[in-house]
Amino acid sequence: MLPDSHNPLDEDGPAVPGTVLTGPDHDLEMENSPEMFGEGTENPFRNWNPEGTSSPIVAIDDGDVVELELADELETDGIGCRLGVAGTAVSLLLHAWVIFNLSGLFVEPNDTAPSVPPIETVMNEPEDLEEIEEQIDYELANPDERELEVREVINSTSVGIAQNDNPKPQAPPTPELERPPTELQQAAYDIPEGIEVDDRMVVKGTVGEAIVQLESALDLVTWEIANNLKERKVMVVWMLDASGSLANQRKLVQKRLKRIYGELDALERSGQLPMRDQPLLSAVVSYGQKTNYLTKAPTDQFSKIEEAFAALKPDTSGQENVFTAIFQVMGMWGHFRNKQGRQIMLVAITDEAGDDHGAPLEAAIARCRRKGAKAYVIGPSAPFGARKGYVPYVAPENGKTYQLPVDLGPDAAIPTQVRLPFWFGGPQYNRPPLSSGFAPYALARMVTETGGIYFMSNMTTMAGLAPIGHFDAASMRPFEPDYKYSSPADCLKDIAKHPLRMAVYNASMASRQFQANSTPRLDIRVTPGNFKQVASDAQKSVAESALMINQILQAFPRGIEQAYHTELSPRWRVAFALAYGRLLAQKVRCMEYNYACAQLKNDLTPQDVRSKSNHWIFRPDDKLNYASPLKKIAREATGWLEKVVNEAPGTPFAVMAARELKDPLGLRVIQRYVPPVQRRPGRPRAAATPNRPRVLFANKKRKNTPPPRPAPPPKPPALPKL
Q1: CA 714 to chain centre
Q2: Domain 214-382+435-464 belongs to what topology?
Q3: What is the pLDDT of residues 308-332, one digit of tens each?
Q4: What pTM was computed for the model?
Q5: Domain residue ranges of the chain, discontinuous segments joined by +
Q6: What distance in Å separates the CA atoms of residue 365 and residue 202, rounded to the nearest whole number?
Q7: Which residues of 1-27 are buried (b: 16+ CB within 10 A; e: fewer)?
């Protein structure tokens, strides 16, 4: 190939067969080759000139000539056949190899065919297997070895990514110990932390615990303080009722302080750390009509706490504004939550329910929830279905006993118990009232809304409750009141959706307006001249009671019994059954007594009274002997009361129902004759002597002295205000 030669396929014009371009300026030379044109054939392009003019032929050396040879068609066909046969053979071998390998995936030697087991049904008695209880070893966590806070662990991944993405600073960071103190202080933002202070997710407190001694209640409070100290620093505020009735209890608490702080290891750490770093700080406050801060600020000095208890002065106003005191304390020392991260624990010790219900209560709850404070109360039990309790007090001036009213309730947001007296002998459960087994509603709401605990203790005012009022906490828990209502109006708005609950409330309010009379006369003596009038007067007493009871029963609409089966709340179920059953039972008693008196008045004659029936004694009987038309109502009343006893055993509801069932609803009259008392004949009088004139002589002049003045009435004793 010449170095200046070009490929004919690269030219624009058609390539001429059998030519070779030797360059742009070279002439085309065609070789007269016998292999190309055949022997004896002259080259037709020998004298051809591309420009149309003849030019002399230049001789070319044999070394510059490239010889081209045309392929033979026969030889070409043979080569193609050989290539086709070879490709077919390769394809067959490839497919055979693939088929052989694939066949190995499905064809496996299987000498034994699988045997299908027969289906058999075997009836075996189930065996009782003893469950092996898993023994779990619990170990208390050491507060000093706890890990980082949750929020730091959660943010660790994002912080690490941010540090890898961001460039490193040019200057090294300033060590924390070298920074000014102002940079180390946390901003005093009032931001709630954790589920215990979130208004939407508050850990509810507990109430209705069993009545314990004051010393045991203080031990439980100490245990709660120790548990909180495992999580964070704590500030305890002792809030003491300054009323005179609690003087002995305050002294007992003061004597037990050293043991409390000794168990918390607060005596050893006192003064060893700065105030800010102390695990436990304490403050003492007393309340009555006003709030008194017995410690100027929370302290870690145990001596100051003892001095504060000793410096408490009794409050003689008779008022106990406990919720106002809590609100003021949180306003004064609530910043310890934000600036020092302390858990605030308010420990109130009282023997009454407090006098500042309503707005002060809700304001105190809101401030405690905002600061994450927990309220713990050591207090009395509330009376069942009442607000007032009565404490016996012996006046030293005259030695007489007076019943002093104290505010111990109510136990629920709205009244749910009807006021009815019991017939025949037995307790009336009004003075002293029966214990409800629950805390006063306002204090209980304060505890539950802040995540604290209410400890019922044997306070002074507990003596004003019936001794039978000690109930098991587990039995009482299903009948616990709902403490979510901030006011009675809020509760009424909710129960208006439930006909049975609204009927119970209306009946309770009606019983305060229409009060039935107590037990009528059960022992009557008559004479032939007055027995009809005496019987009529006895009828009037029970007729008035029956009228009041019928007015109360109008609160229950027709068919209300069906709503009992759809009511889900155990407390409202037994409240309805108790109220409705007692009202029906009292109605039957009144009608039975009325019919009995009417029969006595109509059947007896003056001669019968004079000879065989002048003393009537009424006794309860198992069957209705006079008011036969009310037998169905009597069975219904007994059924409702028995439901209360069976569904709420060990509760004050069952106590009241059992008291009503103690005496049957029927009456029997025992008629006796008591001979009238005969006057003994007196001695004969002596004959009257004739009046003789008597002469009087004045020896001395009488002085005109005024008549003696009557002795002044004794001054009433000064009764204390509890």
Answers
A1: 55
A2: Rossmann fold (3.40.50)
A3: 999 999 998 889 999 999 999 999 9
A4: 0.69
A5: 1-90, 214-382+435-464, 493-672
A6: 12
A7: eeeeeeeeeeeeeeeeeeebbbeeeee
